[in-house]
Every structure is written in structure tokens, then in C-alpha cells.
User: What shape does this take?
Amino acid sequence: MQKQDIETILASQRKFFATGKTLPVSWRLEQLKKLRTSMLRHEEDLYGALKKDLGKSRMESYMCEIGLTLSELTWIEKHIHRLTREKRVPTPLAQFAARSFQSPTPYGTVLIMSPWNYPVLLTLEPLIDALAAGNTVIVKPSAYAPATSAVMEMIIKETYPPEYVRMITGGRQENQALLTQRFDKIFFTGGKTVGREVLRHAAEYLTPVTLELGGKSPCIVDSTAKIPLAARRIVFGKYLNCGQTCVAPDYILCDVSIKDALLAAIQKEITRQFGDRPLDNPDYGKIINEKHFERILGLIAKEKIICGGESDSSTLRIAPTVLTDVSWDDPVMGEEIFGPLLPVLTYSSLDEAIRTVESHPHPLALYFFSEDKKCRKKYWICVTSAAAASTTPLSILLPVPCHLAVSVRAVWVDTTAWKASKPSVTPAALSTKKPGWIFRSGIRSMWDGKKNFYGCFCDSFLIFALSKLKSVKYQKVVCSLSRLTIEHTTFYLHKQHARACLKKAFRELQKTCRIHSFVSYRSILSHSSRSFPCPSWHKKLPQLDSNQRHCG
Assistant: This one.
């Protein structure tokens, strides 16, 4: 696309914004609902495009991209009135007798430049927020994920007029043409090199800029850490999306005394999660293009490989690889890897590890595995500039808050009419013959055939919390679907006590497992519009037979 065409698009968007049509909150909500409808209509197309561009499995595509985008839509729709409301603020004494307000207003025309590693999530989430704020938007996705960009362009074209939202595809030429224009806000996600260019061009017009860049994210494992647990979480976080995640652990700093045990556990976990031959695993991803494939291969020192190292140029796949005896002079430590390579370095004391991290540019994320409370406290005090994650029981290495993978549904059932076809899976509470709420918690996780957990939020935590309440009765039902296992746990609570019991359960969960911000009662309630319906909601349900009721 030529520079003149971009100037024309930008002028039309400024004219549309000046009409004030984007300002009413009701109109913004309508546009968000249109986006949801279009996304659901093209959901299968998105799965296919992500598979083609990045080799992502269906489950990974939903867990890390589509599901999170839909969750963002749900949250924004629920809170948009609060976010756009005028707020009363104190009036300075010099303006006595006046009243002061803070009134959120849109920027105007916004440019969103998104990356290729999570093309759906990191394109549509900023778009959702920009539209909710009342802006017009120009979207520029990465040229490295053409199949996904084509589907998103189709979604945007059929949903919005070009003077409101427009997607511009292309490469470096289009990027340069866009950056020479004057926007009211720029949101960029990508590498440091392009980030500098974005900031340099924005400085010419003093344009507000949000930059989401990268860095070498360390993972510290001390001598008190639970080795199998640490290995499980490190492997999942590192090799998700074939290592092409901005907050993935870039290297390991481990205590020299546990190095051998940690390496053995990591190798075992790689085999457990990806099989003996990861390159033949259909759910294992691929490198985005040949350029990055060759770059990553160039970082591998063959004499330092203790696991992996295999590659397939025809499919652009590199097996999960672990490197040992690595120093900071090695090429793999000179830049962000952004691939399935995991160098392992050692330290003799925690102070040495902290000095090592602080002597290099601050990372985007930092992970610390330890069971020593004093060490954790010291670590948090000393390392404050990185987005750190502690090894609490739920510190799962995900690029997003893991509570978004949880779905809670409530279905009203008249238990006096329930005749289950399989008494063995009938909740014990149904024997009370009283109407009430049936809460079903369905959480998608990655398991092997022996029920070894290695990935997402686990039902057992919620079961544990609810088991602490004497008023709650439950029974587990496990359904296996190939490589994907969905663990269903049915909870019976009387409608008068449902909310109170669930609040108590999550308070117990937070207290016992130290979850803090990872999972909250609020996030569970806000995840789905079907959560906790009004008391009359059950009257609108169609009449179901016993089998349909049981399946929820």
C-alpha cells in the first residue's frame, strides 16, 4: 500500500471520529458484540490459520489466543460503564466553590502494530481496548503470520467500515509509511529494534506510545526448590509455542548442588510432555519462518547439548533443546533466544545469582523457585525492576493470567425429577431430593495417559478448597478425549448458600495455596456471562432428559 493511500485512510478516520459517533458507550458496546459474533463465526478459520503459521494445536490456540481474547471481550463489556464514568476528585483551595471531575476521553485515531508469535491475542486485545475507549483504529499485523492476518482482516472487513477500523497488511514499506503519519496513540508489541524506530518517529509529533518489547528472562532455581515441580513448570513455560513467547524463561540459573538433578528432571519432563520424538508430535509447534529457523540453529553449540538438538528444515521444527556448561560469552546468551533452546548456568550463592541478573539489562519477566521464605523475601527486595513470579503452588508459567482458563457454569436442577442413568456418577447430594444449583467447573489441561498434570490450572485445588466446607458435597467425573482431558467436578450447593459457600471456598484456596492475583473469586464470576444466573433463569431452560442434564 502506498503512502498516499494510508494518508487517505487516516484522513477518513479522523473525519469519522470528529462526528462524535464513537463516543456513546452504548454504541461502543454494540461494536464489541459485533466483534464477538464475527470471531465465533470464523473460529474454525482461526484454528486453521494458527496451525498453518505457527503449528499450534487446537487446545493451545484456544488456551493462549482465542479463549483469552473472548475473555477480554467479556470483561470489557461488563466493566465499560465503570471505566468510562466521570469521577469526582478533590478541588484545590485556589478553585474553591468549583467542583472537579476526571472524565475519560478517547485519544482519537490509534495505530496498533502487533507481532507474529501470538497474532490473534496481541492484535485483537489492543483493538478491543481501543474500541471500548471510543477510538478509531488502524491495525498493522506482522507479515510473518500471513494466514492469521488474512482471517483477521476478513473479520474486521465484515464487522466494521474502513473509516472506523482498518487493517493494513504488508511489510517494512507499509511500516515506514505508517510511522511517518501523525497518530494520536501508538501501541506496539515486538522486538527492540523496531521498537526504537517506533519511538523515534513518535517523538517527532510527541505521540503517546505504549511499547511491549522483550528481553532475556531468567529462571532462578535454588537448592530448596521442589525439583520435579520446578522442571514441570519450566518445561511448559519454555516450550509453549515452541519457545516463541516473550515472557518464556530464556535461561536457567540454578544452584550448583542441584544442577544434575534439575537437568535429569527437565529431560524427563520433556519426554513426558512431548514424547520420545517431539518432532513427530502433531501438537508441537514450529518456528515462524526459515530466517528465524536458521538464526536459532546458529545459536546451538553441539558439544553443549545434553537433550534435543534435532531439527527438520522441511517443517521448520527444532526439538526442545537443553544446553549445559554455558557461559555469558556464548552466542546463545548474547540475545533473546525466542526459540526452544534452554541454556543452564549455575551459581554458588543467591547473592551471586542476583548480581548476575542485575548486571544485565532488566528482563521482561523473572522466575524464582524456592521453598525458603527468607530467600524469597530477599529476592523480592533485591530484584524489583523485573516482573517476577514466585514458586507458589500456582505460579504456572503462562503468558497470561491462568484464571482465564477457568469456566464455571451453574445449572438449576430439580433433583426430585432427576433419574440418573449412571448412579455411579450421580452426586451424593442429589439424594437429598431438594432443588438446588449444580456448579460444574470445567478446566482444560494437558495430561498424559497416566494423569500426569503438566500445564494448566488443576481442578484438584478447587476440590481441596470446597472439601474444607462441611456444607459442600462433591464427586469427580473424568472424561478422556485423546490427548486432552477435561476433568469435571460437580458441586451441589443450595441456592441460598451458593455465593457464600463459593466465596468461602476461594478464600480458603487463596489462604492455603497463596494464589493472590492468579485466581480470585471476582475473576471466576466475570469469566462467563452464564455464571451465576438470576434465580428465575432456570425457568427459561428447555426440558431436558436425564442424560442431557447429566452432561451439563
Summary: The radius of gyration is 25 Å. Confidence is low (pLDDT under 50) at residues 384-496, 512-552. The chain has three domains: 3-212, 218-390, 402-551. The longest strand covers residues 436-446.
